[in-house]
Amino acid sequence: MATCPNGHESSWEDFCSTCGDPISESAGGGGSTGAGDAGAAEASAATGATGGGDAAKSASEIGLSCPHCSVSRTEEDVFCESCGYDFASGTLPTEEASLDPVSGALSGSTPSGSTPSATNAAAAGAAAAAAGAAAGSVTGEVAPPTTPPGDPQPSGKAPESAFKKGADGPVAPDPAGATGEATAAPDTVAVISVDRDFFERVAGGGELSFPDPDPGESRVTLVGNEILIGRRSDSRGIYPEIDLSPPMDDPAVSHRHAMLRQGADGSWTLTDLDSTNGTYLGDHTVSMAPNTEKPLPLGTPVFVGAYTKVTLEAL
Amino acid sequence: MTIFSAQVFQNEYLPDGGDTVDAVVTVSAAPGGETKARQEAVEVIVIDCSGSMKEEGGAKMEGARRGTMAAIDVIRDGVWFAVVAGTSNAWPLYPQQVGLVQSSPQTRAEAKQLVARVRPKGGTAMGKWLLAANELVSQRPGAISHCTLLTDGKNQHEKDWELDAAIANCVGKFQCDARGLGADWDVDEVRKISSALLGTCDIIPSPDQMEDEFRALTEAAMTKAVDRVALRLWAPQGANVQFVKQVAPTIEDLTPKAVQVDALMRDFPLGAWADDESRDYHIRIQIPKGNVGDERLAARVMLVVDDEQVSASLVRAVWTGDQALATRINGEVAHYTGQEELADAIATGLAAREAGDEANATVKLGRAVQLAHEAGNSETVKLLQNVVEVEDPKTGTVRLKRDVAQVDAMALDVRSTRTVRVNKK
Fold first, then answer.
1. Domain spanning B41-222: which superfamily?
2. Is residue A81 over pLDDT 60?
3. Residues in B touching A136 (Cβ below 8 Å)
4. pLDDT of B255-286, one tens digit each?
5. CB contact under 8 A, A44 and B316
6. Residues A28, A47: Cα–Cα separation, whole Å
7. Is B89 within 8 Å of chain A by CB?
8. Which chain B residues are Cβ-neighbours of A34 within 8 angstroms?
9. Which terminus has fewer CB within 10 Å in chain B: N or C?
C-alpha cells in the first residue's frame, strides 16, 4: 500500500486516493494531459492483497449514506432519518404523505391492500399509492386524495397490477370482417347548443340561470360506436365523448347521462342511463324511460340537463 | 462484448489561487473483446389512446396506429415486447393478457392486428402507463429494457405527485424515449419522464411523421448492446463536484443523479449503449487550492459496466505562475461551455417570449442565434429562424416573429439541448 506525502494510505500508486497529491516524483512528473488509461487500471489492480474490487467494496461499507440527501446511515436503516428516503424502493415520501407524519411513516410499509379509513381517506389514499409504488405496482383504482369518505369507489380493491382490463377499454371488440370499426371513418357529428324553450320548461324560475352570453354551437365528431353524453369526472374516471362540463357547463347533466350507440347499419340509438334529470327525445315535454334504447334519427333533437340540445347530423 | 474507452480534454494549468477545474471526457464504445451471447432485450410501446387522439378527424389515432405498427415491424426476432394502450388507465393491448411475448413474424403480425383495433377513449395518466411498463419489464430482470412512450396531451387525469412517484419507481428499471404528438402536450412534463429515465424527448409535429419517427426510435433501441453503464467519478477530499453534464449528443445534467459509492466516489448512471456510439461529458470540480508548482489529481473518471470497472482516466491540476498557460481554455471545454449557454439562452428566451417580455426574449434568442452560428449548429439556427427573423447571425441581431406556430416554438424548446460535436464544425 502506497503512502502519500500527507500520510494517507492510498489504494493507487500514481496519486493519493484521498487527497489527490502525487505519490512519487516519477508519477507526478508525467506532465502530459490525460495520462494513460492503462497506468490507472494497473494501479487499481496492484493494491496489494485486497485487490481493486475488494478495496472498492470495503470503502463502500465505511461510508454508507443516503443517496438522496447524503446524510449518513447504518445498514439497518430502512428510511433516511433526515429526508425519509426509502432505501429499499429508492423512493421519496410523497408530498401528501409527508404532511401527516403517521401516514408518511406508513407509506413504505402499508400493506398494499389496505382500505383507506373514512376518517383519513385522503392521507391513506396517498399512502396506499406510495405503498403500491414501493411494491412495484399501483392499481388504476386507488382512490385519489380528493375522494370524499363513503363515496362508493372501487378503492377497496386490492391493487395487483398497474393494468386495467375489461371490455370498456380502448381496444375495439374483435371485428366480424377485416375492416374493424376502429378504422371505419366517422360519419356522424353531434351538434351541441343551448335551448331557451327547454330551459324555461324544466328549470325556469329555479336557481339555475340560462348561460349568458350564449356559448354558441359546438360540434363533436363521433368516433366509435358507443358515445357517452355526460360530464367529466376525474375522481370517478368518467370521460364522456360528448362532455358537457365546462366550457359547455350544464350542471344538471349527470356524469353518465345517456348513451348513443351506432348499429351495424349505421343508424343511432339513444339510451338514458338513469340520469338524475332525465333525457328528452325529439320534444322536450316527455322524458324517456331510463335504460330503454330508442332509435335516434339524424336531425332529431335530444335535450339533457337544464338547457343543452344535442342533434346528430351526417358528417 | 463492448469495449469502452475514455479520453480527457482539459487545460490542467491553474493560476495561483485558482481552484476550479473543467474537463470534457469523451466516452466511446466499440465492438470487440470476447464474443458473448447477445443480452436479452425488452421493448414496451405505450401509445396514447386518450379522447383527444380523435382530433384532426381521427388522423392522430391513425398516425399512432401506423407508427406503432412501423415500430413493431423492426423489433428484432427474440426480443420480448408488448404494446400498452394508455388512457386514464393502462390497458394491455398486445399481448391481451398482461405479459411479454417474444418477437417473431407471427407475434408481430398478431400485435399489428390488435393495434389496428385500438381507438381513442378516456383520459391521460402517464404515471399509470409508466408503472404498467415497469410491471412488464420486471418480468425479464437483467434484460436491456426500453420503453417508447407517445402522448398527445397533458397529464390531466392524475395528480403531479402520482406521476412523480411513478417516475421515481421506474428509475433504473428501464429507459424511456418519450414523444409528444402535436402541440397540446407539455414539454417540461414529458421531458421530466425522459430525463429521469435516461431517454430522449422530442416533438412529432404531425401524425404523418409518426411512422418514420417510431421506426427510427425502435431501430435505435435495438442497437443497444450493453446496459447499466455508469460513470464513476472520484474527487479528492475537500473537493466540490459542481456539475457533471452530458454535453453530446444532447445536454443532460447528470449532477442530481449521483449515487454515492463511498466518501469520495459517486456513480452517474449512463444507461444502455450501442457498441458504436460516443458521448461527451463536461465535468467541473472545485478542489482545495495548491501552491505554484504543486500538482494534484482533480478527478479520476472511471467507467463501470455490470459493477466492473472498465476504464479510468485522469483529470489533473497543476498550479503555475505562467499566466499564459493558466488562462488558456481548452477547445473542447470552450465549445461545450458555448453549447450549454446556447441551450440556456433558448430556454430563457422562450420563457420570456411566453411571458410577453419581448425585449428580454429578443436579447436571449439573438444571443442563441449568435452562439449557434459560431458553433456551426445549423439545425438549431434553422429552428430559431421559425421563431425569430435573423438580421445578422454574427452579432445576434434578430426580431421576434409575430405569427409563430406553437409546434415551432415547442420544437425549438424540446430540441434546444441538441449539440454538435467539436470536430464537426
1. von Willebrand factor, type A domain (3.40.50.410)
2. yes
3. 134-135, 138, 169
4. 999 999 999 999 999 999 998 899 999 999 99
5. no
6. 19
7. yes
8. 7-10, 313-314
9. C
Say whether B135 and A22 touch across the interface (CB within 8 A). Answer: no
Q: In sequence order, which residues have a C-beta less than 8 Å from that of residue A178 and are 6 or more positions away? A: none
What SS3 state is found at A296? strand
State the pairing for strand pair A188-194/A308-314. antiparallel
User: Is the separation of the CB atoms in B83 and B93 below 8 Å?
Assistant: yes
Instruction: Please provide the CATH number assigned to the domain covering A188-314.
Output: 2.60.200.20
Q: What is the mean pLDDT of residues A224-228?
A: 85
Which ipTM score applies to this complex?
Answer: 0.81
Q: Could you give the percent of chain A with pLDDT greater than 90?
A: 17
Chain A residues whose CB is inside 8 A of the B314 CB are 14-15, 34-35, 40
Strand order of the sheet with strand B265-274?
Answer: B13-15, B308-320, B295-305, B224-234, B265-274, B259-260
Please identify, in words, the CATH class of the domain defined by B332-424.
mainly alpha
Q: Where in chain A is the domain with CATH 2.60.200.20?
A: 188-314
| Minimum CA–CA partner of A237 in chain B | B88
Nearest-angstrom CA–CA distance, A17 and B312: 13
Residue of B8, B262, B287 to mutate when probing chain A, most A C-beta within 10 A: B262
Q: Are strands B201-204 and B175-181 parallel, antiparallel or unpaired?
A: parallel
Summarised one tens digit per residue, pLDDT across range B209-260 is 999 999 999 999 999 989 989 999 999 999 999 999 999 999 999 999 999 9
